[in-house]
């Protein structure tokens, strides 16, 4: 896989690569296989210097494929793709990665099948954002471990911006609000809860509109705890419509939790440009609140 970086500060080629997510081990492997490092298309030495505006190109050794992950040729809906990133609009009812009950047809299996159909044999998918089985929307995938590692600081510093549309039960929510309640697991159960000794969690929301039984909210996650949105709104007394696990109402026209990851924004660590990815609101959520899609930006 070829990777190109746009340089934004002066330093040696080796310093730049090590600061750009190339580990010492990977750097040694690149040198051992004899792949040239290029600056503005010209072969260079590790001690050469680069400066703002230069483009550094490296051919990375192929990652070993996980043969244990089966290939599925079921279709996927692509929201965005470039040399380093793939974003898929995951439907509700599809697991993100294989688990005990499904090893052969998850989103990960389908990505492998998609790449095989494209004749791509040297990529390994690295799932960066996961969604629950019955949550729909954007799942971001890195095409190499270097891409994943370069994005990790933005995740840790809450700079990877994730926006959701949720439909919750009841009315009376303030126009906007912060929910900063710790979340933990109860006795190894699937269900999570707000617990004093749980992990810190931060959810921000904006009220979009309401009927006499439910409210649409735009939600931004600042942390990524398991079931975070579902737990936080349940703790407020407004569980998501269709969310059986958290006691949401099941008679309002949707058969899964009404939650969709509709927008994702991050700074591309290779080009230093902002990438914004969007996924349309699915029909089952639109059906219970037809104005939801026109109400979000």
Give an overview in words.
Helix content is about 20%, strand content about 30%. The chain is elongated, with a radius of gyration of 22 Å. It has helices at about 15-20, 25-30, 105-115, 145-155, 230-235, 285-290, 290-295; strands spanning about 1-5, 10, 40, 40-45, 50, 55-60, 80, 85-90, 125, 135-140, 160-170, 175-180, 185, 190-195, 205-210, 215-220, 260-265, 275-280. The mean pLDDT is about 90. Among the domains are: about 1-60, Structural Genomics Hypothetical 15.5 Kd Protein In mrcA-pckA Intergenic Region, Chain A (Roll); about 160-260, Pseudouridine synthase (2-Layer Sandwich). Strand 3 and strand 4 (about 40-45) form a beta hairpin. Strands 7, 8, 9, 10, 11, 12, 15, 16, 17 and 18 form a ten-stranded mixed sheet that branches. The chain is built from seven helices and 18 strands. By secondary structure, it is α+β, with helices and mostly antiparallel strands.
Name the descriptors.
Pseudouridine synthase, four-stranded antiparallel sheet, 297 residues, Structural Genomics Hypothetical 15.5 Kd Protein In mrcA-pckA Intergenic Region, Chain A, ten-stranded mixed sheet, 18 strands, alpha+beta, 7 helices, 29% strand
């Amino acid at each position: 896989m070829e990777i190109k970086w746009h340089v934004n500060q002066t330093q040696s080629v080796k310093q730049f690569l090590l600061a750009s997510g190339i580990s010492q081990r990977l750097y040694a492997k690149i040198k051992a296989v004899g792949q040239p490092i290029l600056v503005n298309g010209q072969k260079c030495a590790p001690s050469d210097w680069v400066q703002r505006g230069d483009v550094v190109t490296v051919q990375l050794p192929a990652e070993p494929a996980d043969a244990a992950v089966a290939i599925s040729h079921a279709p996927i809906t692509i929201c965005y793709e470039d040399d380093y990133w793939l974003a898929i609009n995951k439907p509700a009812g599809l697991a993100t990665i294989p688990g005990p009950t499904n090893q052969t047809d998850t989103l990960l299996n389908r990505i492998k099948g998609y790449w095989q159909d494209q004749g791509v044999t040297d990529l390994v998918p690295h799932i960066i954002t996961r969604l629950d089985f019955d949550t729909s929307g954007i799942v971001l995938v890195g095409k190499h471990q270097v891409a994943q590692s370069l994005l990790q600081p933005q995740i840790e510093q809450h700079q990877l911006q994730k926006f959701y549309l949720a439909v919750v039960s009841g009315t009376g929510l303030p126009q906007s609000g912060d929910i900063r309640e710790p979340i933990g697991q109860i006795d190894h159960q699937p269900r999570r809860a707000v617990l004093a000794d749980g992990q810190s969690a931060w959810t921000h929301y904006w009220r979009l509109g309401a009927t006499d039984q439910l409210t649409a909210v735009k939600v931004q996650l600042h942390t990524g705890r398991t079931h975070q949105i579902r737990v936080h709104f349940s703790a407020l007394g407004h569980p998501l419509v269709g969310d059986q696990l958290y006691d949401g109402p099941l008679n309002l026209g949707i058969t899964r939790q009404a939650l969709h990851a509709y927008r994702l924004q991050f700074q591309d660590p290779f080009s230093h440009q902002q990438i914004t990815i969007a996924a349309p609101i699915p029909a089952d959520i639109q059906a219970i609140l037809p104005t939801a899609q026109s109400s979000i930006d």
